[in-house]
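Entry type: protein chain
Record version: 2
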Amino acid sequence: MANYIVFALLFIVIIGSAIMCVTTKRIMRAATFLLFVLFGIAGIYFLLDYTFLGAAQLSIYAGGVTMIYVFAIQLVNKRTLQGMVERLKGNKIVFGAFMALLGLVMTVLVFMKNTLIDMSADMADAEVPMKEIGTALMGSEKFQYVLPFEFISVFLLACIIGGIVISRKE
């Protein structure tokens, strides 16, 4: 029962922070709410006893990527940020709401078709050895993740290069 309560609290934090992240007009507040979303996702990993994924979430995403975003935001000129005001039109809001609803419907259909909820409830008590996680993350065979890992490395490198380019004087 306690797991359900903690999950509900994390759900509220993640959804509330995500909504605030995309609706706030101040960029530093958006980065802060993004950090809360990433902490909440790490909390769900820890709740599921995936300590390795939770630690990776905290160190890579919550720590690294968010700090790179904040670094890039701080280096941007204030006049540049003040001139960037976008007015949302009604048709963009309707289109965004429609796409969000479509994504929700597709996610629910995938869950119902594959019965992932029942499978995850059955597998929650099984412990996965660290060697198997490491092999899955760094292996190059089918259902292994070395290619996404390399994409994340390239993404972080692009963020660092972007920060350097932004910090250069004209």
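Comment: The chain has eight helices and no strands.
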